[in-house]
Amino acid sequence: MSDIFCSLRQLSVTYGHGAAALDRIDLDIAAGERLAIVGESGSGKSTFARALADLLPERAKVGGEMLWPALGHPPRPGRDFGFIFQDPGSSLNPVLTIGEQIAEGARRHLGLNWKQAYARAEELLGRVRMPQPDKVMRAFPHQLSGGQRQRVAIAAAIAAKPQLLIADEATSALDVVVQAEIVRLLDGLVREDGMTLLFITHDIALASGFVDRIAVFRDARLVEAGPVRSVLSAPQSDYTAELIASHRDLRTPPLIAKAAS
Ligand SMILES: Nc1ncnc2c1ncn2[C@@H]1O[C@H](COP(=O)(O)OP(=O)(O)OP(=O)(O)O)[C@@H](O)[C@H]1O
Ligand code: NI
């Protein structure tokens, strides 16, 4: 698939009076691709995600162009894109049952009645491989583990069948085993539904294991973007080379071979 989903030209963001948080980013995102945004803390990754999702604070100044050829209009939150954050606690409402929060998105955006929306919520819990979905429907967020809460957040994010899924450090708070499970889950879901995935992480090794392309950010600038294999084997910048060198496991053959397939 080579249709352009989103086209960014000279995208810049400034918060208040500070330095630019994003500085003239040129990038095309293909429909159906899995794109990782990597870079150190403060490089502008979350600002990039929030700019795409139109979730920047009001005082933020945005410059440049953002085009959505596939949609024909800016994406509507919850409908055209789903957002998953590092801390699922921040996106889940503590006083609503799991069933209620997932069903709400399906009801509002797909025009389902509550009964249909509940049925869809339970089905979604199955899709995110939640054990005992029927029980979890009646549970509250605090009764679940961090990994389970992240599965719920993913189910809620895809409830309205969005075309774009944005995961901002969605696995950073989880231990490595759960992290791998969640990445595998995301990978499967976006493949099955043909969603475009924006996977934001400071961990280039984690991203390289499953995305199609990597975009490297540093100090508000896009340093380089390219297919995983070429970025790993022939980085265009010293900065990217340093990022790769700092992950011993990235230089070993299995991951690169996997990225190439
Ligand atoms: N709401 C805000 N108000 C003011 N400045 C902000 C705000 N959010 C981010 N910034 C600034 O914008 C720059 C980019 O921050 P951003 O959160 O996009 O980076 P990041 O790459 O996502 O970092 P991290 O890996 O720590 O999440 C930083 O200098 C940060 O201090
Ligand atoms: Ni961030």
From TrEMBL:
The reply to whether Ion transport figures as a keyword in the UniProt entry is yes
Q: Any idea which UniProt keywords this protein has?
A: ATP-binding, Cell membrane, Ion transport, Membrane, Nucleotide-binding, Translocase, Transport
**Entry's PROSITE patterns?**
ABC_TRANSPORTER_1, ABC_TRANSPORTER_2
Locations listed in the record: Cell inner membrane
How is it placed in the membrane, per its record?
A: Peripheral membrane protein
Taxonomically, the superkingdom here is: Bacteria
- Give GO terms: molecular function aspect only: ABC-type nickel transporter activity; ATP binding; ATP hydrolysis activity
Q: Which InterPro entries match?
A: AAA+_ATPase, ABC_Ni/Peptide_Import, ABC_transporter-like_ATP-bd, ABC_transporter-like_CS, P-loop_NTPase
Q: What's the EC number here?
A: 7.2.2.11
Looking up Pfam families in the UniProt record yields: ABC_tran
| A GO cellular component entry from the record | plasma membrane
Q: Which reaction does it catalyse?
A: Ni(2+)(out) + ATP + H2O = Ni(2+)(in) + ADP + phosphate + H(+)
Q: Does the keyword Membrane apply?
A: yes
Q: Where is the ABC transporter domain?
A: 6-244
Residues of the signal peptide: none
Family per record: Belongs to the ABC transporter superfamily.
**Subunit and interaction comment:** The complex is composed of two ATP-binding proteins (NikD and NikE), two transmembrane proteins (NikB and NikC) and a solute-binding protein (NikA).
Q: What is this protein called?
A: Nickel import system ATP-binding protein NikD
Q: Which species?
A: Rhizobium pisi
